[in-house]
Automatic annotation (TrEMBL):
Keywords: Hydrolase, Magnesium, Manganese, Metal-binding. It comes from Chitinophaga flava. Mg(2+) binds at N7, E34, D147, N149, D247, H248. The keyword Nucleotide-binding does not apply. This is Exodeoxyribonuclease III. Belongs to the DNA repair enzymes AP/ExoA family. It holds the Pfam family Exo_endo_phos.
Amino acid sequence: MKIATYNVNGINARLPVLLRWLKESAPDVACLQELKAPQEKFPENEIREAGYDVIWHGQKSWNGVAILSRVGTPQEVRRTLPGDEEDVNSRYIEANVNGVLIGCLYLPNGNPAPGPKFDYKLGWFQRLTDHAKQLLEQKVPVVLTGDYNVMPTDLDVYKPERWVDDALFRPEVRAAFHALVAQGWTDAVRKLHPGETIYTFWDYFRNAYGRDAGLRIDHFLLSPELDKRLTAAGVDRHVRGWDKSSDHAPVWVELKDK
């Protein structure tokens, strides 16, 4: 089973790129973030014509998440992260797909830090951590994947000294990520590529992609039930170089059957 995550940075603007990648990579499940489309503007017909069932939680501006599947219709569990009934941002959706519980997330950016946006990010991170603990207690196969907006270590960021005050790299955020993983999750990409420089995001400015001045901010966390089924993980880096592509590249894992 091949599962991928991709921050598309505007699904309608990037639809040709998305469809091209889906055809080329053929993931069984694809989790998308930053749809930048209200619910009624999601390109459902095009996605289904590409061979995927889909559920999505749209929203104007910067948010929006979706789960695509070609191995059975995603059975939605929730479309909000528990813990704050007043949070209306569409940043989380969860579904059962082919025997795996998949949480697709778009964690807040948090800049400028310190400030209200940074406080919201830390609060969201804590809600995710609380929910993740409950998921682990179910002892079922779980994937938590998406754009976490955090570089966990110096290896995950080009020139880390330039990012010390950024909300994606501040000590509080890295500590929150490590606390989440310490519950018993496996950082899939790092498990299989422990010492490699691997990035998933390159800014549009200053020829970041050409210079390989990137960040690793899109992650796969696997529950213990899936850790032993992990066989491969990687980044479709070349997709970032396509014309009118997102500033993120797709990330994927492969899991063997039970």
